[in-house]
Amino acid sequence: MPNITIFANSLILDYTIKMKKQAEKIKTYGPKGFREQFLGEDNPIHLLFKSNSDHFFCLEIEEIMQMQHPVPPSKHSCHTLIFISSGQHVMKLGYQEYVTTDNEMIMVPAGQIFSLDNVNNIHKGYICQFHPDILIRKYGSRELLNDFDFLKISGNPKIKLAPEDIDPITNILERLKKEYSETTIADLNIVQSYLITLFYEMNKNAVKTSKSISAAEAITGKFKELIHDHIKTQHQVNYYSSLLNVTPNHLNKCVKTVTGKSAVKWIDENILLEAKYLLFQTTLSVGEIATQVGFEDQSYFSRFFKKTEGISPIRYRKMIDKS
């Protein structure tokens, strides 16, 4: 019996390693790059997309889901929400196939691996795509976003709506579509408020993931909670490993196995997220924001921000003002 268990564990480990190696080769698309790759160059659907559609769009799904090429395993830089009012939509998230039918919703979080083999789905409903930064604006917070399991790659992406919730959700999606279609440039603060309202309506029907978890998953979950509580002052892996009574190497191994990202990467992303909130929601100077997120040296913070985000904090704030 022990030999069978060892053999089974070996197979699981081999499969996990294989999947992770495959995931490392998967391409991440931005909105424009995805459309160019899979809609085809001459597709008239391109005319539906405006100058700020890389940040947000909401359209009837029958208008847009006319792709000319199947989508191999890929990642997207935006969250994508699909609501099917009638018909059937089939796609894979990770390595699991999901069939979404009448009055069901599916969320594809930014960074999730997905694929579409059937480009001839016949259905009606809405598709809403939005950049994660939209959720950071005036009315957002890390605590608020943590309420929505379906925005997490580890969460349950499917939602079956109760009959009494169909009309309220349809009305919000119609408002989002109107904000996108009937304005020259969508007001992203209005979009954010609609999205948050939509998420709370979705939460009434959402079923959170409930499964037995491994030791690595338990350690990773506690690590994420600790980051949330201490990110403004603590940026070192060894600080968190000491709280969890494990070595830094073991913590990093657990986090990497469960999430595909190192512990350092998780810390850096949470520092960046906190900095973005402060750039969006306050008039604090870059130096003051650096202090708020635990950097004594403003220039070091600016270098960190640019290395992680690709642009400086000052330029990022100017982009906010323009949007």
Output the CATH homologous superfamily of the largest domain: Regulatory protein AraC
What's the CATH architecture name of the largest domain? Sandwich
Q: How many DSSP H or I helices?
A: 13
The whole-number mean of residue pLDDT values reads 84
Helix and strand sequence: HEHEHEEEEEEEHEHHHHHHHHH
Structural class designation? alpha+beta
CATH C-level category of the largest domain:
Mainly Beta
Number-wise, the strands total: 10
Please mark out the parts with pLDDT under 50 across 5 or more consecutive residues, or reply none: 4-13, 15-24
Q: How much helicity do the residues have?
A: 40-55%
Work out the oligomeric state of the chains in this entry.
Answer: single chain
The termini sit apart by 62 Å
Radius of gyration: 21 Å
Short description:
The chain has 323 residues and is of the alpha+beta class. It has helices at 2-24, 31-38, 61-64, 142-145, 163-181, 188-203, 215-230, 237-243, 248-259, 263-281, 286-292, 298-309, 313-322, and strands spanning 28-29, 56-60, 71-76, 79-87, 89-93, 96-100, 104-108, 114-116, 123-130, 158-160. The chain has a five-stranded mixed beta sheet with strand order 1-3-8-5-6.
Write the layout of secondary structure elements.
Elements: H1 2-24, E1 28-29, H2 31-38, E2 56-60, H3 61-64, E3 71-76, E4 79-87, E5 89-93, E6 96-100, E7 104-108, E8 114-116, E9 123-130, H4 142-145, E10 158-160, H5 163-181, H6 188-203, H7 215-230, H8 237-243, H9 248-259, H10 263-281, H11 286-292, H12 298-309, H13 313-322
Helix pairs in contact: 5-6, 7-9, 8-9, 11-12
